[in-house]
Specification:
Elements lengths: L1 E7 L4 H10 L6 E8 L7 H6 L2 E4 L8 H14 L4 E4 L8 H7 L3 E5 L11 H8 L3 E8 L9 E8 L6 H24 L12
Parallel strand pairs: 1-2, 1-4, 2-3, 4-5
Antiparallel strand pairs: 5-6, 6-7
Helix pairs in contact: 1-6
Amino acid sequence: MLSLVVLISGGGSNLRSLLEACQDAEYPARVVAIGADRDADGLDLGEEFGVSTFTVPYSSFDSREAWGDELLAVIRQWSPDLVVLSGFMRLLPARVVAALSPNLLNTHPAYLPEFPGAHGVRDALAAGVPETGASLIVVDTGVDDGPIVAQERVPVLPDDTEDSLHARIKIVERRLLVQAVLDIANGNTNLKEHSQI
């Protein structure tokens, strides 16, 4: 059974899909803890699904490195096989990435390497492209440029807003994440083969 710690910064919609998948006795993974860098709405999912939660507030530390060291220490208390950044809007310090990689995944609402960064959906709309996508990557020390584990195209519709496009991308993100965790747990995906670290 693959054990996961999932880090969030917001509502945790991708996390919900993963928690729902984990309720199936046949699904070979379990979320053991949900963490956040702020008071995030998605932490409420812990109570709903009976999963422990923790918060390591970025604002409580003098530096990104000090925050990262505390975050890593808390994550290690759970001894997870895999850490998933799901809507986690904070760059991890290099030593945290080094400690967890390659068993460190991130979802991103674009077809990487297109539109990296915090505004992938907005940037795709601004560029006027006919399609964007969703990606799942192994986190490295860059910004959304780690090895790609899975990705899929999503069309941009003529009347799309940032919200409507993001909503359709999230559907794909959720499916990619649930399937990738399944493939990792079953040995069909070897993250070491995707690692650059």
